[in-house]
Specification:
- This is Nucleotide-diphospho-sugar transferase domain-containing protein.
- The protein contains eleven helices and ten strands.
- The strands form two sheets. Strands 3-2-1-4-7-6-8 form a seven-stranded mixed beta sheet. It has a three-stranded mixed beta sheet with strand order 5-10-9.
- Helix 6 packs parallel to helix 11, helix 8 runs antiparallel to helix 9 and helix 9 packs across helix 10.
- The relative contact order is 0.14.
- The chain is about 45% helix and about 15% strand.
- The chain has a single domain, classed as Spore Coat Polysaccharide Biosynthesis Protein SpsA, Chain A.
- The longest helix has about 30 residues.
- Bound molecules: 2-acetamido-2-deoxy-beta-D-glucopyranose (NAG) (3 copies).
- The site of one 2-acetamido-2-deoxy-beta-D-glucopyranose has 3 residues, from loops.
- One 2-acetamido-2-deoxy-beta-D-glucopyranose binds next to loops.
Length: about 350
């Protein structure tokens, strides 16, 4: 009897272990067998839940497990602090996006993104509060030719202008450097709305940000309750208030990276969201895809949409073509409904 009791006790963790393993295996199967042979630069904004973790083999993953650490602070943080001061609204808000060479190419995503502010519903003024983070020198040059607030996010030893394996350590370091900048922004006392560059803006998305929540995050798929963590988070659109709590959350998030290598920030967030709730009492609001729309759960009611994200589409060209289509639909809607 005694031994079978203790067996039962051992079976419970074993059960979770088995379930966990099956889940991980399922994620791997889904992610590894999705199309993944594109150039890494095209993949920078493949930002749905699965897409961020795909494109590598288990063997590659294991190699990456060995050496992942939180990158050290950089010497050019002062430049970023200066940009924050210049770009912030008087209530200390900034909008941040990031681009690499491919997304910043002429007549590509960055241009379409910037145009969306001019085609939108009185949102052109947000460009005065937008900081564009360039991942490489070419993207930085392009940014400087079209926008006043550009930041070159140089990581020592990382060269993203060359072709890189999507899940290479350099690549992942770069993705995580985004969260480091988020933390830095909060530490400087600014709230930020981070937007992927493949998000088209139609209306002021701040109208859907809750004062109540510490963070407001987009959803790949929204299940109806904005406080429910089971909504699939999408960190392509994230707002955070500059609170001590949020700074601790960013630190915790970045440190959690070591527990879930080699995952991107969005997948790690999805893994630790309940820890964040229990440890920090983190309050998150997820925004309905009716308002912060996307191709994962497309509901194109232009009366409601603030933004539209090329999420759940793979490849820069596909994203660009589809976003162009949505932009045209928006213009048609606007010409019929806003005769001013
Ligand atoms: C891991 O990092 C340590 C110290 O940074 C280094 O000495 C070691 O060679 C690295 N290992 C691999 C497999 O890259
Ligand atoms: C990055 O890699 C590209 C292609 O391999 C090379 O031409 C370029 O000089 C490299 N840049 C740096 C800063 O090392
Ligand atoms: C779009 O949203 C508006 C405002 O809520 C609503 O009145 C309208 O019926 C919706 N249109 C469609 C096609 O669902």
């Amino acid at each position: 009897m005694k031994s079978s009791d203790s067996m039962d006790k051992r079976k419970v963790p074993m059960f979770y272990y088995v379930i966990g393993t099956i889940f991980l295996a399922a994620v791997l199967v889904v992610c590894v067998f999705s199309p993944s042979n594109e150039r890494s630069v095209d993949r920078l904004h493949s930002d749905c839940l699965c897409a961020k973790g795909q494109g590598t083999t288990t063997e590659e993953m294991e190699k990456l497990h060995t050496n992942i650490s939180v990158p050290p602070h950089e010497s050019n943080d002062d430049n970023f602090a200066l940009l924050l001061r210049k770009a912030a609204t008087d209530d200390k808000r900034v909008i941040i996006t990031d681009v690499n060479e491919a997304f910043a190419a002429p007549n590509s995503m960055l241009d379409l993104f910037l145009q969306s502010f001019h085609n939108g519903d009185n949102i052109g003024h947000f460009l005065d509060h937008l900081i564009i983070v360039a991942m490489d020198q070419k993207a930085f040059e392009k940014c400087n030719s079209v926008h006043p607030y550009c930041y070159l996010n140089e990581q020592p030893g990382i060269n993203l202008s060359s072709e890189k394996v999507y899940m290479s350590k350099d690549y992942i370091d770069l993705v995580w450097s985004k969260v480091r900048l988020w933390q830095f922004t909060l530490e400087q006392g600014y709230s930020f709305l981070f937007t992927d560059v493949d998000v088209m803006w139609f209306r002021d998305p701040f109208r859907h940000i809750s004062y109540y929540a510490d963070m407001t995050i987009a959803a790949d798929v929204f299940y109806g309750n904005s406080e429910d963590h089971n909504n699939n988070p999408n960190t392509g659109l994230v707002f955070a208030k500059p609170t001590r709590k949020n700074i601790e959350v960013m630190k915790y998030w970045r440190e959690a990276r070591e527990r879930f290598p080699p995952m991107h920030e969005q997948l790690v967030y999805d893994n630790i969201k309940y820890e964040l709730v229990s440890k920090f009492d983190l309050k998150v609001q997820y925004v309905s895809t009716e308002y912060w729309g996307n191709f994962c759960q497309p509901q194109k009611n232009f009366t409601k949409l603030s933004t539209f994200h090329a999420c759940c589409l793979v490849g820069l060209e596909t994203k660009f073509a589809n976003l162009k289509g949505v932009t045209e639909e928006w213009k048609t809607y606007k010409s019929i409904n806003h005769k001013s």
